[in-house]
Amino acid sequence: VQLVESGGGLVQPGGSLRLACAASGFTFGRVDMHWVRQAPGKGPEWVSRINTGGSITYYAGSVKGRFTISRDNAKNRLYLQMNSLQPEDTAVYYCARDCSGSSPVRCTYRGQGTQVTVSS
Fold first, then answer.
1. Cis (ω within 30 of 0) for the bond into 104?
2. 94 in Cβ contact with 5 (< 8 Å)
3. Residues in a beta bridge with 67
4. Is it the case that residue 102 has pLDDT exceeding 90?
5. What's the CA gap between 76 and 84, in Å, rounded?
6. Cβ distance 66 to 84 under 8 Å?
7. Cβ(71)–Cβ(78) under 8 Å?
């Protein structure tokens, strides 16, 4: 299993970023996928989940209405569109699978992460 995130960076409050995750080593279209994040000094926090077909999505209350998870099974890609970013969204964001719990979340597989920093 390999998960490689990209798309992080520095953004001002109110700005947007789109994260991507390239998955390989397993049948991507048969697995629910997650985004989780870890802020400095805090434990890992579950952010969002999407079912295999992409028709059912779930969000943590702190991001609902601002973040959108999606997937492209033909390309083995997972995405997270993040709008109206706030300083409290600053964290390393991970693409993950086989997760349980919310805060802290535990995932069997996750990528190396991509840093998102929201600051003016």
1. yes
2. yes
3. 82
4. no
5. 27
6. yes
7. yes
DSSP, collapsed to helix, strand or coil, labels residue 1 as coil
**Pairing state of beta strands 9-11 and 114-118?**
parallel
The average confidence (pLDDT) of the chain is: 97
**Average pLDDT of the segment spanning 3-11:** 98
Helix H, strand E, coil C: the string for 2-39 is EEEEECCEEECCCCCEEEEEEEECCCHHHCCEEEEEEC
- By the 8 A CB rule, do 93 and 80 touch? yes
The tokens for 75 are 């390309």
DSSP states of 35-81: EEEE-TTS--EEEEEE-TTS--EEE-TTTTTTEEEEEETTTTEEEEE
